[in-house]
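User: I'm curious whether this sequence folds into something compact or stays loose and floppy. Could you predict its structure so I can see for myself?
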Amino acid sequence: MATSEELTQLFKALAHPERLSILLLLEGKELCVCEIEEALDLRQAYVSQQLTVLREAGLVCYRKDGWNVRYRISRPEVYTLLEMAASIHDRLGICAVTNAELISSGGSCGIDSEPISRESL
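Assistant: Here's the prediction. I'll summarize afterward.
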């Protein structure tokens, strides 16, 4: 199991809008830096810098193809993590409780939002 420090490093690598854009762009395909640069309208040096961070985090890998370096996702599970993060974001402030907790608390979990059950998630 990963340590909290290792997880922190993973989340730091993911905590950048351009790196997330690169990961989303690479979903299901392999691209060279020039293709990423063009798709995201970013400078080559900046794209390379962000790819280095993602590579060091173990999220992308690469292969040389002549003069080009082609990048792809090394851990496709990252997309599950991103989907879960989006789901969490969409439900921020909503208290997720079990039916037993909902009944025992009288239908409230102590915040202003409407409580929901685990089954509705």
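Summary: The beta strands are 31-32, 60-65, 68-73, 96-97, 116-117. The two ends are 26 Å apart (CA to CA).
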